[in-house]
Amino acid sequence: AGVSTLLTMRTQHPLGRHTTPLHLSIGSQGKRSDEMVRFILKAAGEDVRARDWQGNSAMHVACAAGYTAALDEAVVWIRFVHSERHLCEMANEANEGGDAPIALAVRGGHADCVKALLGTGW
């Protein structure tokens, strides 16, 4: 019960929005973080649509950081749990700054993330 409790926690931000364990694991890019992203998605059923306090989804965080492995995991999970149409919608959703995930990848020079998103039918 302890692990599942931790995985469902949300870190509160003063504006009332949250950062999920998925956002934190994608942002860390540390050793074994790919495994952690996969675990959080599969074992905890983390909602990939959840937004952080800046309106970023997991796709936004991965694209901004150039973390292609995490983006790939999120894409596979969205296709599996939701649909191809939902995946395309998420790839085009803007954060609070008005940026879609692909815009963050382009701005950061993360070509592999751009290619991964273009492969989704974006």
Q: Can you describe what's shown?
A:
The chain is mainly alpha-helical and 122 residues long. It contains eight helices and two strands. A hairpin with a 5-residue loop joins strand 1 and strand 2. The chain is globular. Mean pLDDT is 77; it is low at 10-16.
Summarize the structure.
The chain is mainly alpha-helical and 122 residues long. It is 59% helix and 3% strand. The chain has 8 helices and 2 strands, in the order H-E-E-H-H-H-H-H-H-H.
Question: Strand content of the residues, in percent?
Answer: under 5%
Q: How can the largest sheet be summarized?
A: 2 strands, antiparallel
The run of helices and strands is HEEHHHHHHH
- Fraction of residues in helix: 55-70%
In round numbers, the mean pLDDT is 77
| Poorly predicted ranges | 10-16
Numbering strands along the chain, what is their spatial order in the largest sheet?
1-2
Count every helix, treating DSSP H or I runs of 4 or more residues as helices.
8
Q: Over all CA atoms, what is the radius of gyration?
A: 13 Å
Class computed from helices, strands and strand pairing: mainly alpha
Q: State the end-to-end CA separation.
A: 39 Å
Overall form: globular
Number of E-type strands = 2
Blueprint (SSEs and pairs):
Elements: H1 2-7, E1 11-12, E2 18-19, H2 21-28, H3 33-43, H4 58-65, H5 68-81, H6 84-92, H7 101-108, H8 111-118
Antiparallel strand pairs: 1-2
Features:
single chain; mainly alpha; two-stranded antiparallel ribbon; 8 helices; 2 strands; 3% strand; globular
